[in-house]
Amino acid sequence: MTTKVSTQSPPSTDEQIVEEVLAHINAARKAEGLAALQLDDDLSRASALHNKLMINGCGLSHQCSGEGDIGKRFSAQGVRWSSAGENIGFGSSGSSAAAMIKAANGLTDSMLAETPPNDGHRKNLLSKGFTRIGLSIVRDSKGVTWMTQDFVG
Q: 84: domain range?
């Protein structure tokens, strides 16, 4: 594995938070008879860089001004993929890791509760075609937790 160098420093996500949110996602997948998603460090870096742009003024968007689409963002971090998807969200939380986990899991639960035809987030979370995930969960200076979930197969 090679180390990727970027001129942008993404916000860091506490490892405990990522592990808890990934476990929550994989529990939902298991309940549907699906294999667990594997955390991908390069994909998580793409997630973190996107989160940084959203936090720094872009707002909730799948493509910020001057940013490539998800395929270009993933490839720029060395991610090999044949299919790709992304979920983004934000919500208020306290500053503790437990509060951030609760916020991120709540966002995930809202996505899992979607119903057709407006269930794109749910489809990403429960896709048989996605095998790897990148996660970034960061609290900004205003107490808002931002989450980017990136998926590839």
A: 15-152
Q: Which residue has the tokens 């001004």?
A: 65
Instruction: Report residue 5 as tokens.
Output: 């160098």
Q: What is the DSSP letter of 56?
A: I
Measured from the Cβ of residue 129, the count of other Cβ atoms closer than 10 Å reads: 13
1-10, 12-21, 119-128: segment of lowest average pLDDT: 1-10
Are the beta carbons of 85 and 130 closer than 8 angstroms? yes
Dig out the tokens for 40 from the structure: 């991908």
Give 64-67's long-range contacts (Cβ < 8 A, gap of 24+).
Answer: none
DSSP state of 24: H
Rounded to whole angstroms, the Cα distance separating 87 from 124 reads: 7
Tens digits of residue pLDDT in 71-100: 999 999 999 999 999 999 999 888 889 999
CATH code, domain with 50? 3.40.33.10
Domain assignment of residue 65, yes or no = yes
Q: How many distinct structural domains can be found in the chain? A: 1
